[in-house]
Write a structure and sequence with these properties.
It contains two helices and 18 strands. It has 393 residues and is mostly beta strands.
Length: 393
Amino acid sequence: MVQKVARVVAVAVIRFKIYLLLVIMVVLPGATQAAVVPEDRTDILYHSYDGGGITIDGPSILVRKGDKKSYSVFGQYYVDSISSASIDVEVSGASRYTEERTEKSVGVDYVRDKTTMSFSHTTSSENDYEAKSYNIGVSQDMFGDLTTISLGYSQGDDIIRATGNDSFEETASRKNYRLGITQVLTRDLIMSFSHETVSDQGYLQNPYRQQRYIVDINAPTLEYTFGPEIYPNTRTSTANAIRAKYYLPYRAAIHFEYRDFEDDWGIDATQTEIGYTHPFGEEWIFEVHLRNYEQSSADFYRDLFLSPTELNFMARDKELSDYTTSTIGFGVSYEFAKNGYGFIDKGSANLFYDRIQFDYNNFSDLRGLPAIGEEPLYSFSANVIRLFVSLWY
């Protein structure tokens, strides 16, 4: 049932799940100096999302180890414990449900001269959704290490089921193409550009969600009922992002990001973020950021359809509606054992908190069974917490 909340979490936590598979890529020629192998480290994370009647939390652990010269391998284990009584669940009359999603990843980074090649495989499992994915990427440093170009391809295959309906089973596949360029412009300024194209095919809707429509448009008193959503079986989206980070004379830094998104379902979205990082002493680092996200609705989205056959495709998923989010976030990091302690070279403890406000411009709150034309617009706020410890060795 995590399908019910997947899009909410993707927007709120900026947790975008990308589903992957392998292609062959041509490695750009190397230069004289070597790229850097990722450091040996272990990250232990606790994450929490609470908002809109949905609670998601759980642990994650990532372990990375290599020869410090040419390769580094990693493994990650990630758990989502989900408890939901979202507005979709409440309006449908269903009771709060709980479930768990488990994700496992393995991967390797290989460095030769100035080229870094990466490969990873991820599987996730829950009671009604199975996913497996593969990813391959390559990055190349050039022009005196002032420029880095990266290319990537991913593909994944999903199996979707519906709890309580043993005969229901659908599939979906996703392909992802990525290009990135990072440029050191001055001693203090770094900028990057990234482009991503995603192609989805198969069953792309939620088997539990419904759209609503007017029973009889000619009746003296208008009433509505619910029917199944109908989505296209293909979707192509593109996203571009520009990021910049400027280091200030007193060891602090500011960063800026602008991202735009569009797809062939008619959705256009933009995201803008600005942040500030400030060290305090030798051990503490404080961060703050503001983020704004705006999205238009899909062509086949309606809060209320005039009939059950008004359009060929019909959806009432609030994450396909016209809405905005505003985020303010804070973070603090503490570095410890900087001179080493036993087998540990150094460590850091980190706490990050985001407060997110969701405001939907054409999605109504149907709780309380308001009459047609009297429905209030839906809004809610969410709290996102990430607490993790990193150890280098």
